[in-house]
């Protein structure tokens, strides 16, 4: 692939500018937090209490809004390919800030649905999709390591936001908490995304991983050449691996969202308080953070479908542990296991698409994958809420959920990187 040299980086750095892109992408992962379930879940009990809604109704609103967001997200992927990550990241940040302000003045079920929809589309959807298409543009050989550094932002978000939201809601109320996140997005994230982000290393005269190789064509300006096969979305969809991996990436979204959305209620059902639920979410992030660095090196050396299978094996173990939790100590053990699994998941689910299908059409390919992931997350909370209303607890739905990562582990083993043929 060749791109014409276009401009200089916005600032001069003594290191490869791609690491500045990784930092900006990590910030995007952090600020996706207001639209993530680990953040929204802290508000749910307050919504149920203040609006006098049933758990099933709120779960249904959340699931249907997430479903609608998922069905819309593929458009974001196509726009990323057309307009580039810089413009799309800036727009998504602005729209997520508006979504936060909307939730601050929310009144009634319709506004709640629209609030959930905007949070999920612009936060959980767009501000995780865009950085996961941006970083692979800047790295190939060091892609796993770069994604593991980017993941710091996501882990910091999932570690801090449950505790911050709990504190802010107690101190100032849930409406003011949403206002604070809207202001932070406008003041911090949006200017950084606009000023520092560049779409590709070719735009500033470099290539992925930071080793320039400039070639001169006759009668043409210098160009940069990168040897990496890039599949179109239609080409990728003709492979067996695409569809098996697509199912696999939907499983953590469905299971984790269901567990996280109802974690406070699950903890209370086991005789534990909401503070324990917040602790588990934070522990998951803290434990998962160092694991990502190990996985980042691992996926640069081991075929990714093997690492993917290990990840889903860990999901099965985590659900078994959650079924057995009956004390604070058990909750801590679950947080540790879940954190290890999450550390694997954050890297392997991001790297599989660029490693299998290249960079050029990654927005469209990852956009479709992210759509399926959001759809999976849409169907997570609702069955948990329904089973709770039917059985008065969550044991039955957790047993049902174990089958999904077990099947995904098997599919992963049968999904090696496909060979390109025109």
UniProtKB/TrEMBL annotation:
InterPro entries per the record?
MFS, MFS_dom, MFS_trans_sf, Proton-linked_MCT
Q: Which GO terms describe its molecular function?
A: transmembrane transporter activity
Where, by residue number, does the polypeptide cross the bilayer?
61-80, 87-105, 111-134, 146-164, 176-197, 241-264, 276-299, 306-325, 331-356, 368-391, 397-414
Q: How does it sit in the membrane?
A: Multi-pass membrane protein
Q: Keyword Transmembrane helix: yes or no? A: yes
Q: Which Gene3D superfamilies match?
A: MFS general substrate transporter like domains (1.20.1250.20)
The record's annotation in PANTHER family points to: BLL3089 PROTEIN, MONOCARBOXYLATE TRANSPORTER
Record protein name field: Sugar phosphate permease
């Amino acid at each position: 692939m060749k791109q014409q040299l276009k401009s200089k980086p916005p600032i001069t750095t003594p290191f490869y500018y791609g690491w500045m892109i990784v930092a900006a992408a990590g910030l995007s992962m952090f600020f996706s937090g207001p639209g993530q379930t680990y953040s929204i879940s802290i508000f749910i009990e307050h919504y149920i209490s203040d609006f006098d809604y049933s758990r099933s109704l709120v779960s249904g609103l959340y699931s249907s809004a997430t479903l609608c967001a998922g069905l819309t997200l593929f458009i974001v992927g196509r726009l990323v390919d057309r307009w580039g990550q810089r413009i799309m990241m800036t727009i998504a940040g602005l729209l997520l800030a508006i979504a936060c302000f909307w939730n601050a003045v929310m009144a009634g079920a319709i506004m709640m649905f629209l609030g959930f929809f905007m949070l999920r589309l612009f936060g959980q959807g767009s501000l995780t999709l865009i950085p996961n298409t941006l970083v692979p543009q800047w790295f190939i050989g060091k892609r796993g390591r770069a994604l593991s550094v980017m993941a710091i932002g996501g882990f910091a978000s999932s570690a801090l936001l449950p505790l911050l939201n709990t504190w802010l809601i107690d101190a100032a109320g849930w409406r003011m908490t949403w206002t604070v996140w809207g202001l932070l997005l406008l003041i911090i994230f949006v200017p950084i995304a606009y000023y520092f982000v560049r779409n590709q290393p070719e735009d500033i005269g470099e290539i992925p991983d930071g080793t320039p190789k400039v070639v001169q064509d006759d009668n043409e300006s210098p160009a940069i050449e990168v040897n990496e096969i890039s599949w179109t979305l239609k080409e990728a969809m003709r492979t067996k691996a695409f569809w098996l991996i697509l199912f696999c990436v939907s499983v953590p979204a469905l299971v984790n969202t269901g567990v996280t959305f109802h974690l406070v209620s699950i903890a209370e059902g086991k005789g534990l308080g909401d503070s324990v639920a917040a602790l588990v979410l934070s522990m998951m992030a803290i434990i998962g953070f160092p694991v990502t660095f190990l996985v980042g090196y691992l996926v640069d050396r081991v075929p990714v479908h093997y690492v993917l299978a290990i990840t889903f094996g860990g999901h099965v173990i985590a659900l078994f542990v959650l079924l057995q939790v009956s004390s604070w100590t058990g909750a801590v053990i679950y947080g540790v296991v879940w954190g290890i699994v999450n550390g694997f998941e954050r890297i392997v689910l991001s790297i599989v698409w660029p490693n299998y299908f290249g960079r050029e059409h990654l927005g469209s390919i990852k956009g479709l994958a992210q759509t399926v992931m959001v759809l999976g997350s849409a169907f997570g909370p609702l069955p948990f809420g329904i089973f709770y209303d039917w059985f008065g607890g969550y044991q039955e739905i957790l047993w049902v959920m174990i089958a999904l990562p077990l099947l995904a582990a098997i599919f992963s083993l049968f999904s090696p990187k496909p060979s390109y043929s025109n």
